[in-house]
Design goal:
The chain is of the alpha+beta class. Among the domains are: 85-155, Phage tail protein beta-alpha-beta fold, CATH 3.55.50; 160-169 and 238-295. 28% of the residues lie in helices and 42% in strands. It is built from eleven helices and 24 strands. The strands form seven sheets. Strands 11, 12, 15, 16, 17, 23 and 24 form a seven-stranded antiparallel sheet that branches. Strands 18, 19, 20, 21 and 22 form a five-stranded antiparallel sheet that branches. Helix 2 (37-54) runs antiparallel to helix 11. The chain starts with 6 loop residues before the first helix and ends with a helix.
């Protein structure tokens, strides 16, 4: 009797609990079935790319018939050109030699009327093409095969047009890293006072067409009387492809004369050369190799990371421990190549072998020999072979708090500087002078203030050189700068001025490293220490007037941070873009799985 009134309440509570469980289940199922928009887009893109790659070339029947007819017509000639035979002649007229060479073979040969001279050869088991190549290299008789017909040219001056696909641009890139210890005397030109770390931001950019050395010399002369030098590294990258091409081709043909000429037309992308056949052959080989070289492309993936070091790692990131963790992670395709001891000169490399012990899948201890390339200097430089940079980030988190400052990604071609800059420019006072105006009664002082912009943020410029084997030599110049206000009081004449001057903190390095395709380059060792005030108080008691100082604490906490730059060059080939799409698809799929599991 007394429990009956409580029954509806219990029933209501059970109903609410059941409803909550049902709604939770519905919500879970809803997330489980939901796909991210990026997943669908990437899946569709990868499918379309795979379909284009694997699409068969369906040739129309009419085209097949025409090709087969032409093949049947040219069959005797083609067969004859690949027949092997012996050749032995002595002082035979060149015209008679070439005509008799194909006699009875079904191969068509046309000899230019100006062909003269004699030929002496003794060759065994050769084809028509082999013989013609020998006569071209030895006697200078150039030949050309077009539609199954060989045309033999005289060993005389000829004109040939070469097509080169390249931009008609001229570029100059300058990276300047400098440390000025002090100033001996005041310079009259305040523009010369700026030093250190501004990549490509000097007035030299106005001298892109060959005047840069003169401008740098003038600036050096201005600074020499006023600055006490510390250290300085200047790197200049100049590209004037067409001028360099014309100069090189002219040297190959032995210089321009009344008969030999080189004409370059950058707008049309053409090079016209008049020279002897063997010289034209050398020019052709050079241009083909040059075009392949300048068109090599590399994708540069960079991460600029700040690691707030935990207790026990105040000396910096322990790269040896990370090396062991990467090796112990069992993947033998991963490895570590690190500089640590500082016994070689800056820019020098030396080969070492590091033995690493790991446990294989069967539980047996194995020894892995990792080739080590050491480089030393102001920063620690190393090479890591990892499939994913995020794997390295997770290892860095074991030694401190990791903050990714920037993740730039840029693509550039061979020997062309690529630059990324993220931040802001702010103007600060960099010069002040006093102009006095006097009259019979008073003297008026008018200050003249000069303002200059300072960059605060992250900049990275990289210049790659890509070899035929896919190895990359990189000039890397990262700069992380932070500019804050600093009030300075000056007395000019009889007046005091309080001016906001720039206090600039810079972390910067300038390195040249070598890496294989896909290796991760590590630049570390750029450490800073900051001191923060940590105030504390007891609740309530710390708010009592007069007595609150007795219940408050003031401490200073020191924090060390290390700047780490990770750079991964990926040389572009036929498979690169497909691999990048697949990698993006896998990353998006992992994000979707994480979202659906919540």
């Amino acid at each position: 009797m007394f429990t009956h009134p409580k029954t509806p309440k219990r029933l209501f509570q059970c109903s609410l609990l059941s409803l909550a469980i049902i709604l939770s289940a519905c919500s879970t199922n809803k997330n489980a079935d939901k796909r991210l928009l990026g997943e669908d887009v990437l899946d569709q893109t990868v499918s379309q790319q795979a379909a284009r790659t694997n699409q068969p070339n369906n040739v129309p029947a009419e085209v097949n018939k025409a090709l087969l007819d032409n093949q049947s017509l040219n069959a005797p000639s083609a067969k004859g050109s690949y027949d092997r035979f012996d050749v032995s002649v002595s002082n035979v007229a060149a015209r008679d030699f070439f005509l008799g060479l194909v006699n009875g073979t079904g191969v068509n040969v046309v000899v230019h009327p100006e062909v003269t001279g004699s030929v002496t050869l003794d060759l065994k088991n050769v084809t028509v093409d082999d013989v013609l190549r020998v006569t071209r290299d030895i006697y200078g008789y150039e030949y050309r095969k077009d539609r199954g017909i060989y045309t033999i040219y005289a060993n005389a001056l000829r004109t040939e047009v070469f097509q080169i696909n390249y931009l008609d641009v001229q570029r100059v890139g300058v990276s300047d890293t400098s440390v000025m210890i002090g100033r001996a005397q005041t310079s009259g030109n305040n523009n010369s006072n700026n030093s250190g770390g501004n990549s490509g931001s000097s007035n030299d950019t106005a001298n892109l067409l060959g005047m840069i050395e003169s401008a740098q010399q003038q600036r050096s002369n201005r600074n020499s009387s006023g600055l006490t030098p510390g250290s300085r590294v200047q790197t200049m990258n100049r590209t004037d492809f067409w001028a360099s091409l014309e100069k090189t081709v002219t040297s190959i043909i032995g210089g321009e004369t009344e008969s030999r000429q080189v004409m370059v037309t950058p707008q049309a992308g053409m090079v016209v050369v008049t020279a002897m056949p063997h010289e034209l052959s050398a020019v052709r080989d050079f241009l083909e190799r040059s075009e392949l070289s300048v068109k090599r492309q590399v994708i540069l993936e960079a991460k600029i990371i700040e690691v707030r070091l935990s207790e026990g790692f105040e000396a910096g990131v322990n790269w040896g421990a990370i090396s062991g963790q990467i090796t112990a992670a069992k993947n033998l395709q991963d490895g570590f190549d690190l500089n640590t001891d500082g016994s070689t000169e800056v820019g020098e490399f030396r080969e070492l072998i590091r033995n690493n012990i790991y446990t294989d899948s069967d539980g047996n201890l194995q020894n892995l020999e990792v080739p080590v390339r050491e480089r030393v200097g102001g920063t620690i430089a190393g090479l890591i072979q990892v499939g994913d940079i995020t794997k390295l980030l997770s290892l860095l988190e074991t030694q401190g708090t990791v903050q990714v400052l920037s993740s730039p990604r840029v693509s550039t071609v061979n020997n062309q500087k690529a630059m990324i800059r993220v931040g802001s420019d702010e103007y600060f006072v960099t010069g002040i002078s006093n102009n006095q105006t006097s009259n019979a009664a008073t003297t008026t002082s008018t200050p003249s203030i000069e303002l200059s912009s300072f960059f605060s943020g992250i900049s990275l410029d990289v210049t790659p050189q890509i070899s035929e084997r896919g190895e990359v030599i990189l000039h890397i110049h990262p700069v992380v700068s932070e500019v804050t206000d600093q009030q300075k009081v000056f007395t000019v004449g009889n007046e005091q001025f309080s001016l906001p001057l720039a206090l600039r903190g810079v972390r910067e390095s300038d390195s040249i490293v070598k890496a294989a395709n896909g290796q991760v380059i590590v630049l570390g060792g750029l450490m800073t220490e900051s001191t923060n005030n940590v105030d504390g108080k007891r609740p309530l008691l710390g708010d009592i007037p007069v007595l609150n100082a007795l219940f408050k604490t003031k401490n200073k906490a020191k924090t060390k941070t290390e700047l780490v730059i990770l750079l991964r060059p990926i040389v572009v080939d036929d498979r690169t873009w497909d691999e990048q799409l697949t990698e993006a698809q896998n990353s998006m799929r992992d994000m979707g799985d994480t979202y659906r599991s919540q």
